[in-house]
Design a protein that fits this description.
The structure is a single chain. By secondary structure, this protein is an alpha/beta fold. It folds into two domains: 5-198 and 310-331, Rossmann fold, CATH 3.40.50; 223-298, 2-Layer Sandwich (formyl-coa transferase, domain 3). It is 37% helix and 14% strand. The chain is built from 15 helices and eleven strands. The strands form three sheets. A six-stranded parallel beta sheet has the order 5-2-1-6-7-8, sandwiched between helices. Helix 1 links the parallel strand 1 and strand 2. Helix 1 (14-24) packs across helix 7 (157-181) and helix 7 crosses helix 8 (191-198). It is elongated, with a radius of gyration of 24 Å. It starts with a strand and ends in a 6-residue tail after the last helix.
């Protein structure tokens, strides 16, 4: 995706993560921000230097252009930028772009090669389309919290996996199609859709008339989490016969009670060496992850502690609000009145 120019109207987490993933594939991203404060995440603590930590992670290496899209000159400037862009990413509620005079259908007519990605929680259609939403709500409707004691996940699966990463994949696919046909596209990308699509095996089990899967969801003792003598935990995933054989070399009792006794007999970090062949690994805290030898060997973090996106390394400084406005507008020959 080198030499691909992306105009990013999104804010907060899903859209900026999508364009960060596109950066990992080689794209250049121009972030459009409201002059009155910019992306809200800029100001959310904790901070790294002058910027919020989340903003730093999601927007490093991007170029910031400050435009008020409610003003005619702001819209005209955006249209000038779109004239040389390959992709437009937006995360407004359905209909907002049209009310701004930037309806995706009209943009497609004006810029037929442009790929427009509209990333929302619920999608452009359906009875929930105009509802507000957050990650936990999309998870709830997708059935991912529908068990006896639901808990709040420690990762924003809808925003990041079903939203941002899925959006980057669909954009890349649309650009590939454009290379063959010369035509762009308007992509309706919903986080709910992504969450449903991620659950292929679960819904296949239901379609087969079987009860919900327990093999990979904590219903089998050999696939679970166990506390160790030092208070740490290990994960165990000894499902296949060769892995079970390694686990049996340590205990004949593979019940939950038997495995609980086994792992309580030694500290967490002893088990990788003893039973790594049974898919037993330590449960790390976030603070420990970057120091893990496998993580370090893979080069998954920058020296400043920021993680690379799943699509590849992204470097560069964090832009100040509107830092590149004049340069970007001059690049496309737009002169403000």
């Amino acid at each position: 995706m080198k030499n691909t120019r992306v105009i990013d109207l999104s804010r907060l987490l899903p859209g900026p993560f999508a364009t960060l993933c596109l950066q990992g594939l080689g794209a250049e991203v121009v972030k459009i921000e409201d002059p009155a404060g910019g992306d809200f995440v800029r100001h959310v603590p904790p901070r790294i230097g002058e910027h919020g930590a989340w903003f730093t992670a999601l927007n490093r290496g991007k170029r910031s252009v400050a435009l008020d899209l409610k003003r005619p000159d702001g819209r005209d400037a955006l249209l000038a930028l779109l004239g040389e862009a390959d992709v437009l990413v937006e995360s407004f509620r359905p209909g907002v772009l049209a009310r701004l005079g930037l309806a995706p259908t009209e943009l497609r007519t004006r810029f037929p090669r442009l790929v427009i990605a509209s990333l929302t929680g619920w999608g452009q259609t359906g009875p929930y389309a105009q509802l507000p939403g957050h990650d936990i709500g999309f998870l709830a409707i997708a059935g991912l919290l529908g068990h006896a004691d639901p808990t709040v996940p420690k990762l924003q699966w809808a925003d990041l996996a079903a939203g941002g990463l899925a959006a980057a994949l669909r954009i890349a696919g649309a650009l590939l199609d454009r290379s063959r046909t010369g035509e762009g596209a308007w992509l309706d990308i919903a986080m709910l859709d992504g969450l449903i699509g991620l659950q292929q095996t679960q819904f296949a089990t239901l379609a087969a008339g079987a009860p919900p899967d327990e093999l990979l969801t904590g219903g089998v003792p050999a696939y679970g989490l166990y506390r160790c003598s030092d208070g740490g935990w290990v994960s165990v995933a000894a499902l296949e016969p060769p892995f079970l054989a390694v686990l049996r070399s340590a205990t004949d009792d593979l019940s939950t009670q038997g495995l609980t006794r086994l792992f309580a007999g030694a500290p967490r970090d002893a088990w990788l060496e003893r039973l790594g062949g049974a898919c037993v690994v330590p449960v790390l805290t976030l603070a420990e992850v970057a120091r893990d030898p496998q993580v370090a060997a893979r080069g998954l973090f920058r020296e400043d502690g920021l993680a690379h996106p799943p699509t590849g390394p992204v470097d560069g400084s964090v832009p100040m609000l509107g830092e590149h406005t004049q340069a970007e507008l001059a690049r496309v020959g737009y002169v403000r009145a």
